[in-house]
Specification:
Chain A: It comes from Lactiplantibacillus daowaiensis. Chain A: This is Methionine ABC transporter ATP-binding protein. Chain A: Keywords: Amino-acid transport, ATP-binding, Cell membrane, Membrane, Nucleotide-binding, Translocase, Transport. Chain A: GO terms for molecular function: ATP binding. Chain A is built from 12 helices and 14 strands. With 342 residues, chain A is an alpha/beta fold. Chain A folds into 2 domains: 242 residues, Rossmann fold; 92 residues, ACT domain (Alpha-Beta Plaits). Chain A starts with a strand and ends with a strand. Chain B contains 9 helices and no strands. Chain B is elongated and about 70 Å long. Chain B has a single domain, classed as MetI-like (MetI-like fold, Orthogonal Bundle). The mean pLDDT of chain B is 92. Chain B has 220 residues and is mainly alpha-helical. Chain B starts with a helix and ends with a helix.
């Protein structure tokens, strides 16, 4: 049995004169101990969907099963009990501004029924875990964004949760701080075997953190795969849009201006593995008679596995070019015919 | 000049004491019940808790109804009620009754606003811990709303000080009554000016203390 199972989730909001369908028939399951990501543009319904898991958002239709308990059928008491075992990390940290860090954590501990006498020791332990041991009596306003998020993580971990939900947890942070937070989450996942569901619009996060990833668009789940596969060969339109922007092969305007005077075809290629493509390129050039010019190329690492990213320019007869494209389609994971702009 | 001093010597102490009684009794009742009603309105309007539009609009209607009456009229209408509660409506205690009735809905709206201004994300985070509403109130809503509540208390006390002068004129006494009785009806400008100066000083002090307290409890 999966740890989290969402079955045919629909969420609609009744607004004045119109109904907003935020989540449409989404089904997914998350296994114990994995880091599952949901990516998509803002407004795709990710935040709403993730909130159904701890029932901050009740679905209009569908079932939410957490460790086998159906929250849609559960009493308020059962839901509160489930929430204590599900930590939540927010984009804007959401700490209690007029309370010290220790008091912020004490609140979460009290909510989880942690004995009051043992709270001070637990608070020290939690703050040490996120590297803020000496900041107990500080107020959140005295911390940087990254430090606030560490407190957010400490709070989410207060009651030894089985699941951690992260809503754009790195999106309000600069790149370096975001990486720190990602490292902390990875570490937590490995040491404590906590299942993490992380939603984001940043593919950088997906690349280094997620085991599996789902893509959402306009309330629908359009794709679900291992993270490496999403980057190597996205299936859905939205998946391609997101990945293409991330593994960008757009050429500088100057280079484009030179290419536009020629009658060739620009291709963006992606392939699994770090091997060089030159044997394939040489072979295809020989077989079809086109000239293949490598404009740019690099290797990206997704979950420590390599993906080659290449832009090549083909020149030759129209027939030869289309033969070459077909040949590439058979030999590499992703081929896109890119039009050159003036 | 001599006459003014005599009048003030004989009456000012009692008048200040009567005003203090009226303002503090009604202020205390207004703040306690106003906070509860404000919290009630917040709870039944916030989507994070239990939105209940019908309950909310009924309570809201009653509050608006009381607040729409000019205080002078409310006071007159409440004379029988004050008699019932305080025995004699023409005493500081009697005056405090109508002042309390005015203070409760006044502070209720201020308290509702103070709670509604709390960052929804912080409340959502509190909800996500599985905390009970009572715990959320104690540890999140109250500390986060406290500075705004303190400013509301200052506003309420100053308004009540003003209203107490009106209650005073129908017989409840107090510093406003002193100004009207001697300063206006008996043409003693000295008393009138003295009362004005005293009122200005009181209001400044209350405002200053409130600002200091609100500042002290603001950490964000």
């Amino acid at each position: 049995m999966s740890q989290i199972e969402l079955q045919h989730i629909d969420v609609t909001f009744q607004q004045k004169r119109r109904t907003v369908h935020a989540v449409k028939d989404v089904s997914l399951s998350v296994e114990k101990g994995e880091i599952f990501g949901i990516v998509g543009l803002s407004g795709a319904g990710k935040s709403t969907l993730v909130r159904t898991i701890n029932y901050l958002q009740a679905p209009t239709n569908g079932k939410v099963l957490v460790d086998g308990t159906d929250l849609t059928q559960a009493s308020a008491k059962t839901i509160a009990a489930a929430r204590r075992k599900i930590g939540f990390i927010f984009q804007n940290f959401n700490l209690i501004g007029n309370r010290t860090l220790a008091q912020n954590l004490a609140f979460a501990l009290t909510a989880g029924g942690y004995p009051e006498k043992e709270q001070p020791a637990r608070i020290t332990e939690l703050l040490a875990l996120v590297g803020l041991a000496d900041r107990q009596d500080n107020y959140p306003s005295q911390l940087s964004g990254g430090q606030k998020q560490r407190v957010g993580i400490a709070r989410a971990l207060a009651n030894d949760p089985d699941i951690l939900l992260c809503d754009e947890a790195t999106s309000a942070l600069d790149v370096e701080t975001a990486e720190e937070i990602i490292q902390i989450l990875k570490d937590i996942n490995q040491r404590l075997h906590i299942t993490i569901v992380f939603i984001t619009h940043q593919l950088e996060v997906a690349r280094s953190l997620f085991d599996r990833v789902a893509v959402m668009e306009a309330g629908c789940l359009v794709e679900q795969s291992a993270t490496y596969d999403l980057f190597a060969a996205p299936q859905s339109d939205m998946g391609q849009r997101l990945v293409n922007r991330f593994l960008d092969t757009t050429l500088p305007a100057k280079v484009q201006a030179q290419l536009i005077q020629q009658t060739g075809q620009l291709l963006a290629l992606r392939y699994r593995g770090s091997d060089s493509l030159s044997p394939i390129i040489t072979q295809i050039a020989k077989n079809t008679g086109v000239d293949i010019n490598i404009i740019q190329g690099r290797v990206e690492f997704i979950q420590d596995r390599a993906i080659g990213v290449l832009a090549v320019y083909l020149t030759g007869s129209a027939v030869a070019i289309s033969q070459a494209i077909q040949a590439f389609q058979q030999r590499v994971d992703y081929v896109e015919e890119v039009s050159v702009n003036a | 000049m001599h006459e003014t001093i005599v009048i003030l010597q004989q009456n000012l102490g009692q008048a200040l004491w009567d005003t203090a009684k009226m303002v503090f009794i009604s202020g205390f009742i207004g703040i306690i019940f106003g906070t509860l009603i404000g919290l009630f309105l917040y709870y039944f309007s916030n989507p994070l808790f239990s939105p209940h539009p019908v309950t909310n609009s009924i309570v809201g209607f009653v509050i608006n109804a009381i607040r729409s009456l000019p205080f002078l009229i409310l006071m007159v209408v409440l004379i029988p009620f004050a008699k019932l509660v305080a025995g004699d409506p023409y005493t500081p205690l009697g005056g405090a009754v109508s002042l309390s009735v005015a203070a409760i809905p006044f502070f209720a709206r201020l308290a509702e606003g103070a709670f509604a201004e709390i960052d929804a994300g912080v409340v959502e985070a509190a909800r996500s811990t599985g905390a009970s509403f009572w715990l959320i109130f104690q540890e999140v809503l109250f500390p986060e709303a406290l500075p705004a509540l303190i400013r509301g208390i200052v506003l309420t006390l100053i308004s009540l000080l003003g209203y107490s002068a009106m209650v005073g004129t129908i017989g409840a006494g107090g510093i406003g009554d002193l100004a009207i009785q001697y300063g206006y009806n008996r043409y003693n400008t000295g008393v009138l000016v003295s009362v004005i100066v005293i009122l200005i000083v009181i209001v400044q002090i209350v405002q200053w203390c409130g600002d200091q307290l609100a500042e002290h409890y603001t950490r964000s």
